[in-house]
Queue: 4 jobs
Job 1
Amino acid sequence: MSIKENLEQVKSEFKSDEKLLEGAFRLEKFFKRYKWVLLFIIVAFIAYLGDTKLQDYKREQTRERITQIYNEVLESPNNIALQKRLKEVAPELYDLYQFARASERNDANAFKKLSQSSNEIVKTFAQYSYASLSQDKNLLEKSPILKEMSALQEVNLLYGENSKDAIKKAHQILSTIPLSSSLYAIISVLKHYGISEEIQQNPSKPTNLKKETIQGTH
């Protein structure tokens, strides 16, 4: 290799080292300028991870505590102190428990209290149960959801009659309930049920309901 070629190689290496040093200098300059910002980001990220882990741990502990208290309430249903603790830690679960007990006793007063529950499911069914037990037609007609539930109850009774006219009327009632109804999933299932076309001549032998074939399925 000639001296000229050696000089060119050395020159090329110097340029590479110069670029490397220039990059390192820029990086050092950037770090010095923004070191506190970078430090803040790192600390904030670590704090976020720590807080997330802590919140997950607290939620898990709360769930375990609620489950334990609820199981104790089920084992000792007459223990007022346990019920009070359940109400404090999980008011919506407490209302659901009270609704189940009220349903066993058909307790209209309990349903009336639960009709103000923060648990929307309990609230709706408690209002319906209270209106049914107290035979409050105005309440049933005033609330769309209660009116729809009342309609479903009527449909159930019509299906129980197991006749062509009853089934036809049941489907007419179901068709009046709007698609936006929260009960539409139940309605869709009911619409797929019908009566066998041939009603048996012997009235003492009941005809069973059969499920209609859904289009596109076998």
Note: The chain has two domains: 64-140, 143-218.
Job 2
Amino acid sequence: MDVRRLQRDGLLKDNTAYSWYWKDASGTVMAAIDVRALRGGVQFDYRLNDEHEVSECVQTTTTACNYGGERIWFVCPCCDRRCAIVYLSRQVACRTCQKFRYPSQSEDETDATWREQRILEEKLGGSGYWKKPKGMHQVTFNRMHSRIIALESKRVQLLGASYRHLFGDNKF
């Protein structure tokens, strides 16, 4: 649940109650949540897997914005930190407390080099043969091209280290 969206849609006014339903292709309700905005918090009532019922009130707080107004936040029930999004699972909590990770936080060094190279290649018009895109400075193109070569070199070193770890220093 994103408190910014709830605020933008006017769903955080006192005693505002609403329900959300998720349906499959045939129209059968797969999941539902009841939400009630209270003074200083939001009440969530939902059921997980037809067995675990959750009813949790998440407090809200505000901070002043630099140019006037205020920004609303959820207060994570687990760690008491401000967060814009709480995740609904067996408990309502922030991303950190739920131990959710972004894919980049779970990848190894080799995967990180592949991801960075794909991003650079997209900026240069795709994989394989690269030519400087129109409007790009030559210095920028050279820097990106050099970085791709460095990433490929790093992957070769990582692959060599993996083979040495698996097979020792035996020569093939």
Note: The mean pLDDT is 89.
Job 3
Amino acid sequence: MNAFHRTYHLMAETLAPDWRVITKIFGGLLGPDFIVSTGGKSYRVGSLTVGQLKRGIPAEDLDMLEVDPDTYEAI
């Protein structure tokens, strides 16, 4: 593996998001809600927060409602 490939893999690992969308819930007045997982916890967020996560804002800086991963009810 040459230096280019090592750099490429390190950059890809660094830029990879540390969150993922688990499910999308329709029927809200303000659009769909999303259940996202980050840091071993699940949160219920709106599309604005998902957009902020996509832009690279750290999950720790956002106000997110933690939910039970089995029932998606607020903790």
Note: Residues 18-75 form one domain.
Job 4
Amino acid sequence: MTSRYNADREELAKAGFKVPILFDSKNPHSRFFLACMDGTGNDAIDDPEHETNVGKIADQLFKRRAGGETRIGVGYVQGPGTQHGLLQRTLDGIDGFTSEERAEQMYQMFIEQAHEWKREDPNAQISFGGVGFSRGGDEIALLTRLVHERGIQDPSGAIYTYDSHHQIKHVEYTKPPLVPPGQVAQAVALFDAVGTGNEVRNDDRRLPSTVISGLQLFAMDEKRSLFKSDHIIDPGISADGRFAGIYVPGAHSDVGGGYHRDGLSTRAGNMVIDYLNRLSDKPFLQTSIEPEDPRLNVVHRSEEGMFIYRITGKVNRLEPEGYNELLVPRRDMGKVPDPYNAEPVDEAIRARYEVHSLYETATPLEGTGSRNAAEHALSLQVDHMLAAAQHGDWGTFMRDNQRLAALDAGRDLRAQAGAAMDAAEQSALHQPVPQAAVPLMETRGPMR
């Protein structure tokens, strides 16, 4: 089961799948914004105990920003169905009616960050990335169309109309854009995109021509008919080499994250982090230790959970019954050249960027190489725990501590510490007992 990830990496390496370098750390004008959009009911802010891969990626970048990173920006938007009011939360969870508003919210975050960058450096070269889970994956697709069709608008001239829940219902831009439409290079990474609900399907989710790269993971063991996979990116490598769609083991949240038994979602998260890191000339995100403990590497039976999932239909994700390919509203099927696939790539935009392979090989080095890799991964995990403690993030610290305790590396570390303590105790037992020293005393007058 877990070996499937190495096989997928090997296939990507053999296929020569390449990724553009959208952020160049050596270029002082280079800027990159990553939009992180969570899935239905997922909220890394108010429910960090069930943080998804999207939330974890965003959290890493927010900490980098707090540590002084200024050239990589980040935005995070909770998933549909995370409102505090019961009625709104329930209805949004069912139909995803706030998906457009959430995409607008993220676009607002993006242009505000871009405006700040342009103010600091008028020659700033801004690219855009999006990572999403579940409905958040479909929202990322909506968002890429906003970025493509609007460019980077000037937020200082934006006039917003909000509803009673302070969600954007309309916006008018009164100043020229900071970057014209169709000129911002984009890339996406999608964890098991699912567009359940009429509101989501009433939008155009075809990736536009300025999306020059993308990766989508599909949960091959998800069986709920209400969670049919959206093929925003098709499985396999696209004919133009720009997209990769990969089937990975597990149910929906075994890919996107949120379960405490998170062996599979950790591997899915690492694969997406590998991809995001390759959008830069230098890695900017940490991968996590992939647990070998079989208690953590399980396929959750999501279809046996809530009552509604037990009584509704089951599908096979590998068959047409288990996925959606139509990416535009049915009313628009005859109005676009291809309603089932992304728009052809803009070769002029694509040619601006150097590319490099996502994976050279999936096979770890033998001997000391693999040992050093394991030691490095352990070091990164401990560093992550220490950083959480320094920031007072005790929830993250405890989760990382529990995860480390269940790993082979954690057990080895405890065994080494225990052996060291035993050796110290044995050494102390064999040391001679020192004689009590008699302190010298200053005397006054004759001694008796």
Note: Residues 1-357 form one domain.
